[in-house]
Design a protein that fits this description.
Length: 528
């Protein structure tokens, strides 16, 4: 569970899910519930304890905190472990300043939600945070709630200094969309390999699948962000068919780091994409696709047969946009990712666990135990789960035919706004909980659920910190991205691949980056 001595700085993991939430009606008669496990906890803690919480993990920082008598979730937490919970929710963009001000004044909250591993390590180095290692064995259910990679992300200098904050969401934003109506018209099957996918894209481009007699359809479109990075815009998903990806994708195999962006298999991935470009199955507008909304417009217009987009584009609101913009609602379906030549079948890699809960070093043993007990209840109590993940029973969710039914999507705008504060407590929701999202189209739920089996493990390269002495780091990354684009577009022939690797070594000191990775992986216990 723990990493050995290492100092890491990692980008904050962002889960932008605040828009998926809450609402209500009259809550008169609704009382906070407590499971038998929470009742036993309250018996164990006979003396009430005050706990201050700095909650920047809320999914809606703008939502006001209600009075205690109206705050059902707060009452549940307080009753579960016999505490008086004083929660502070900083406004968006002000969290770091607010927390630093509190720390400087010596008024450190007992429980802090931190959004990045960099913050977790920094505040521990400053003597702000407690080492939780001696206590966690008392909380086996809490330990089981999160995977090893999530706990690894909260380890630092051989100690566990945080508890994972909330699950990141995977298996939805990188869905493989294909025009099933075009497949039917051309009498083709859903592709399952890169070669089959190429033949489908070629047919979508050349055989007039929309039947308008014009040469105006394409097999695929992807893009890259304004910085020239290929990640998240579609081409990276094609690379995963070959088990590789752009910077900074690093695996550990056979006790060595494997840099996937310069692995020999990357050359094969680039050759495949170049083959697509040469056959003109890629919409030439790909060079201008620098934002997700531009790719969505291509999806709505319906002139491309295969794309990597968010499965929520199957929801009614997006379907309506397709009708308004493209004149029809195409039969888009989400299919499994193609299985590559080396057995890779990846829709995306699990997001890095950047967010976490930390406890003030000022907290004594009893307070640390009480806080960890609250977190264990919050994240693992099965009876409490829907009250935190979905909202208030009878309003946001209910029991229908013996099963929990999330009703958030059925609520009016006014009802949702009335109880926005339940967003402060949704952290326990699981990243693979389709009911939480309250999808309106069953096909969205199906796609989301099916994609889970194709989410790969988090890459260990996410744990690396930049070496401050590596002054060529930014230029090296830029050169790698630019070179990959040139190779796949044909501006630079793949016969120059060895020259590319040589330039990385001679001009951009790739060896320094490799040495840094080896050193930090050894410190982390990932290699011997």
């Amino acid at each position: 569970m723990q990493l050995k001595k290492v100092s890491f700085t990692v980008l904050a993991a962002i889960v932008g899910l605040g828009a998926l939430l809450s609402a209500c009606t009259d809550k008169e008669g609704i009382k906070p519930g407590a499971s038998s496990s929470s009742q036993s906890e309250s018996n164990k803690f006979a003396t009430k304890m005050k706990i201050t919480m700095f909650n920047q993990g809320t999914f809606n920082a703008a939502a006001p905190i209600p009075p205690r008598e109206e705050d059902i979730q707060r009452q549940m937490l307080e009753k579960a472990v016999n505490i008086d919970l004083d929660m502070m929710v900083p406004q968006a963009g002000q969290a770091t300043t607010k927390l630093n001000t509190l720390i400087a004044g010596g008024d450190i909250p007992d429980l802090l939600f931190l959004k990045s591993r960099a913050d977790l390590a920094q505040y521990y180095d400053q003597g702000v945070l407690a080492d939780l290692t001696p206590y966690l064995d008392q909380f086996p259910e809490l330990q089981k709630r999160f995977g090893k990679d999530s706990w690894d992300a909260t380890s630092y200098l051989g100690k566990t200094i945080g508890v994972p904050g909330y699950d990141n969401v995977n298996g939805i934003s990188r869905s493989f969309f294909i025009r099933n109506d075009w497949l039917k018209k051309l009498n083709m099957k859903v592709p399952t390999t890169p070669d089959e996918l190429f033949e489908v894209m070629k047919a979508f481009t050349e055989k007039d699948p929309d039947g308008n007699g014009k040469n105006d359809t394409y097999g695929f479109i992807g893009g890259m962000n304004k910085e020239g990075n290929l990640q998240t815009y579609g081409f990276d998903s094609l690379m995963w068919m070959f088990g590789v990806n752009p910077p900074s994708a690093i695996e550990v195999k056979d006790n060595k780091p494997v840099f996937l962006f310069i692995d020999p298999k990357m050359k094969e991935a680039l050759a495949y994409i170049n083959k697509m470009m040469t056959a003109k199955v890629v919409d030439p507008d790909w060079v201008t696709m620098t934002t997700p909304d531009l790719l969505d417009q291509k999806l709505y217009k319906g002139k491309v047969g295969f794309m990597i987009r968010d499965a929520r584009r199957l929801e009614p609101d997006y379907q309506q946009k397709m009708k308004e913009i493209g004149g029809e609602i195409p039969e888009w379906i989400v299919i499994p990712p193609m299985k590559g030549p080396y057995g890779d079948q990846i829709v995306e890699r699990k997001s890095f666990q950047g967010n976490s809960w930390a406890i003030s070093k000022k907290a004594d043993k009893d307070k640390i135990i009480r806080i960890l007990s609250m977190l264990e209840y919050l994240f693992t109590d099965k009876e409490a789960y829907p009250n935190f993940a979905y909202g208030i029973k009878g309003i946001h969710w209910d029991i229908v035919d013996g099963k929990i039914k999330n009703k958030t999507s059925e609520l009016s705008k006014e009802m949702k706004e009335k109880y926005l504060w339940v967003d402060h407590y949704r952290m326990p929701r699981r990243g693979d909980d389709a009911e939480y999202f309250s999808f309106q189209n069953p096909k969205t739920t199906e796609a989301f659920t099916n994609n889970q089996q194709y989410v790969g493990l988090t890459l260990p390269g996410n744990l690396l910190t930049a070496d401050p002495s590596d002054t060529l780091a930014a230029d090296r990354t830029r050169f790698i991205n630019e070179s990959l684009v040139k190779f796949m577009s044909g501006k630079d022939p793949l016969t120059n691949w060895d020259n590319f690797l040589k330039t990385l070594d001679t001009k951009f000191d790739m060896q320094k980056y490799k040495d840094t990775a080896v050193k930090q992986f050894k410190e982390a216990g990932l290699i011997k």
